[in-house]
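Tokens as discussed.
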């Protein structure tokens, strides 16, 4: 079986690639991995894992046709952008034309019918296109990543505080390594066709509770500061120059502030036979970032 990966140089896709690479030797009938990447140098770690690289732009149909040759399953994991829906629809259509049997799409738990925020609405439309394509499909739908907190490491170290515009909203944040392991299981296993898997960590937490957990691990008081959205937007605008993307990220954080996602799921336990990583475990493993 040959699997095509997209997004494999990112955190979640990279975790999926690592988990899949560990299965290559044990898979019955052989498991071959291929990754479509923009930059071969950035993807060297994938090549070192034994993953074949196809270098090119996902918007180039000739590159996609080359990447799809002989592929049985494909992972659709694209960065959020204004062109994401167009790219994902084209990816799906060309995958079907090339004889790919099964697409696994990384979506989000916020992607529910009627979603109005740009990123969830894009995922909803893409999911619907994949379902209508006639291909076998599986949706993997995580929510807030624990890895997002790594960007707050400097202010936690220097001030004992971190700043986000999330009010009293809550989320069952998950480790991208758990999400990657779920993706790998879905791609390499059987019986996942036609299913949507919501992926969470083990606890629903407000960001104030997350601050308490971080503080308990690093041994000092850590405070969550509910940052006004205008201040957060100004700060984020220094790093995100695309107006659509900036607006989309601010919309997501505003939705968390309005309530967030107050549920956990047993997806990791059911698919991987173990509990998902806790925030305490995550902070311990990344303690140098926070302490």
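Sequence:
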């Amino acid at each position: 079986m040959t699997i095509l990966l997209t997004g494999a140089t990112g955190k979640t896709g990279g975790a999926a690639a690592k988990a899949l690479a560990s299965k290559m030797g044990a898979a019955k009938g052989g498991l071959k991995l291929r990754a479509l990447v923009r930059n071969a140098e950035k993807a060297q770690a994938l090549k070192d894992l034994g993953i074949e690289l196809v270098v090119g732009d996902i918007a180039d149909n000739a590159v996609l046709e080359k990447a799809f040759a002989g592929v049985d399953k494909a992972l659709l994991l694209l960065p959020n952008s204004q062109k994401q829906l167009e790219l994902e629809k084209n990816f799906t259509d060309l995958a079907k034309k090339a004889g790919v049997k099964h697409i696994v799409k990384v979506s989000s738990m916020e992607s529910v019918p009627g979603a109005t925020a740009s990123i969830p609405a894009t995922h909803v439309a893409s999911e619907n296109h994949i379902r209508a394509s006639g291909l076998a499909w599986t949706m993997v739908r995580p929510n807030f990543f624990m890895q997002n907190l790594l960007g707050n490491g400097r202010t936690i170290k220097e001030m004992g505080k971190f700043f986000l515009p999330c009010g009293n909203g809550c989320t069952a944040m998950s480790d991208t390594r758990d999400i990657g392991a779920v993706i790998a299981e879905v791609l390499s296993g059987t019986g996942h066709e036609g299913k949507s898997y919501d992926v969470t960590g083990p606890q629903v937490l407000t960001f104030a509770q997350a601050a308490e957990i971080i503080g308990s691990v690093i041994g000092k008081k850590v405070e969550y500061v509910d940052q006004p959205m205008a201040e957060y937007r100004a700060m984020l605008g220094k790093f995100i120059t695309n107006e659509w993307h900036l607006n989309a990220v601010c919309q997501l954080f505003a939705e968390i502030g309005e309530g967030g996602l107050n549920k956990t799921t047993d997806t990791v336990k059911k698919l991987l036979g173990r509990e998902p990583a806790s925030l305490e475990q995550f902070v311990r493993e990344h303690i140098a970032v926070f302490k």
